Amino acid sequence: MEAPHVSVMLRGWDIRTGTTGExxxxxxxxxxALGIDGLVAGDHVTFYGFGNDGLVTLTAAAAVTExxxxxxxxxxxxxxxxxxxxxxxAQLDQLSMGRFTLGIGVGGEDPHEFWSCGVDPRTRGARANxxxxxxxxxxxxxxxxxxxxxxxxxxxxxxxxxxxxxPIFVGGRSEAALRRAGRLGxxxxxxxxxxxxxxxxxxxxxxxxxxxxxxxxxxxxxxxxWTSVAADRAAARELVAxxxxxxYRLPFERFERYTPFGTAREVAEFIWAFVERGAxxxxxxxxxxxxxxxxxxxxxxxxxxxxxxx
Length: 310
Prior knowledge:
By secondary structure, the protein is α/β, with parallel strands linked by helices. It contains 10 helices and 14 strands. It has a single domain, classed as TIM Barrel (Alpha-Beta Barrel), CATH 3.20.20.30. It is 43% helix and 21% strand. A hairpin with a 4-residue loop joins strand 8 and strand 9. GO terms for molecular function: oxidoreductase activity, acting on paired donors, with incorporation or reduction of molecular oxygen.
């Protein structure tokens, strides 16, 4: 069995943790130098008051790298109008010469984030579905007309077109997310799942793809993990617990069963159970003392996954 494609989360500029723009760029360079397969960036407009634009972060990363893949995980598509998103994504894909994958999600953990953008959070799934359809058309057609419940376009053309057909990965755990991935996506990214639940999710994605007349095998599977790597397992747990509790404002015990931590080998063995069930893509949110250390520990996990594959 082949090792998965491993990406590491590129954390955006954050005054709360002292992360600077130069630190983010250096982390991107370091990830490429260490042979990591991809960089992922999260996305929020105002998540409990904090924001990070995934497309901006990855555009900066594209400018200082040449090989490494770039992906949002996940971009909150329902918060935006799809026409400017189509342009931004196409331009990023051109600048990176075809290295970009659009990973989308519908969010909703902080409803105030949606209301702040003038979006009813109850409509986020339907908005995402319409936006995906619009993006695919704007990337391949001119004079696009679309009339939906949430978006209306009349003879809209966007240039540049992407460097290549931009893959769209759909993130989430709900039945609606699985349906969206199977019917509209090129891939599915799960989070906070057991290996068994991930396997079941991939079966559902395949069934939805088949219902839509698509090849079930064409929708690739992936998982995103918060993690921390340290020789001392208790120290690793403390690092990842602190990061998750600060982000989600929930006790770590809610996430612990889904979260690998410990040595690089222990983390890789935890992840391998998902690889055996179809996870071809693995995104790591490594919570370490510095961005540079986060990249280095992710590289160690990647190496351990390759050892398991041999």
